[in-house]
Amino acid sequence: MHLADDRRKVYSEPYGDSTLGSANSLTGFLESVELRKIHHSRLALRSRTGSLEELVASIEEKGLLEPIVVRPVENGFEVVAGNRRLEACRRLKMHRIPCHIVELDDREAFEVSLVENVQNETMNPIDEARAFKRYVDDYGYGGVSELAKNIGKSQEYVSNRLRLLSLPNEV
User: Structure pTM?
Assistant: First the structure.
């Protein structure tokens, strides 16, 4: 699937200091997508989604206020940002939801997901540290300094999170 289809509305959403899409934004299309075509990311950052009761209640009452970010894959779409919102919509047995569809490679998708989770402070520190390590090991062309710049955090913040991974399990 390519994003050159003129029937779709062009949509741009800011994401921190990242250079994805265009200067400080993701450019793609806003479209209603069937839930059955949306798959959780294989690059997921969290070990658990946590409690969804409040999110489910909010979406049930007000609707899905922010579209999830997805990228086209061979068998539909893969979530880039919004796994918890997707799961809440599934629990509500919704059939279609608004999605911001963007074309991203694995590195860009991981970076966008990381930025959303870090900036919204929705990850626990260990999951965050694991995600930072994965980024640096798998995608970090500039290591910790580039990661810090791309997610809008200080190098010290990123380094301190990474140090959590060297602590004994029984802390």
Answer: 0.70
